[in-house]
User: Fold ABC transporter permease subunit from Pseudomonas karstica.
Amino acid sequence: MRQEYEITLEPLPGIRVERELPLRQRLWQQGWLRKGLILIVLAILWEAAARYQDNDLLLPSFLQTFHAFYDGIASGELLSKVSISLVVLVKGYLIGIVLAFALTTLAVSTQLGRDLLSTLTSMFNPLPAIALLPLALLWFGLGQNSLIFVLVHSVLWALALNTYSGFLGVSETLRMAGRNYGLKGMRFVLFILIPAALPSILAGLKIGWAFAWRTLIAAELVFGATSGKGGLGWYIFQNRNELYTDKVFAGLAVVILIGLLVENLVFDTFERLTVKRWGMQR
Assistant:
C-alpha cells in the first residue's frame, strides 16, 4: 500500500479572493428580513389608505388596529379566543391526518382500496366543508364535535390525494430495493413510500392546514359557540355586530399571524430538516 501524504497548495498570486459578501447582500439573503420588509410596506399602504378613506367604521387605520390588538392581548380576551380555536383545530387536523394516511395506505395496498379512495375523493372533495354545517348541527349538536366534523372533512381529502399522488410517483427502483429487503405492507409504506413521497405529503399537509384553519373561522362565524364559549371567529362576528371594526381587523390580523407562524416556523422548519436536507427539494 502506498503511504498517504498531503500536498500543501501555494496561494495563487495576483488573484484577489473575496472572503465574504458585502453586508447588504448578506442581509438581503435572509428570508425573514425580506418578508419583514414586505409586511412593513403593506402596513404603510394600509395606513395611507385608511387616512385617505377617513372613515373608521369602514376601514380603521393600522395604528388603531394595533391598539385594538394590544388591548385584546393585554386583557387576555384574544388569547382565550385563540386557545379555544386552536384546541378544536388541532383535534380535527390530527384526526384528518390519521384517516387520510389510513385510506391512502389501503389504496396503495389493494385494488379495492384504490377504487374506494378514487370514489370517495370524487364524491366529497368538491363538496365545501362549510356546506356540511347543517348536517353537523343535526348529528352532533352545537359544540366541538360539529366543528371537528367539518375540519376532518376539509383536511382528509386534500391530504389523501396529495399523499396518494406522492406514492404513485415513487420510482420503481426504490420499490424494488424495499422488496429486496423484504419490506411488505405497513413496513414498506413507512420505510420506502413515505420518505420518498414526503414532498407531496408536506404539500398536502400545508393545503389541509390552510383548509382547516379557514373552515374553522368560517364555522365559528356561523355557529361559533363551542361548549358555551366562542373562538376567534366568534370574536370577529360579535365585534362586527357591535360595530367595533378595529377589533374585527385585530381578529383578522390574528388569523393571518397564526397562518404565518405555522407556515414559517412549523412547515418550513420541517422541510429544511427533511426534504431540503436530503436534496429532494430546492
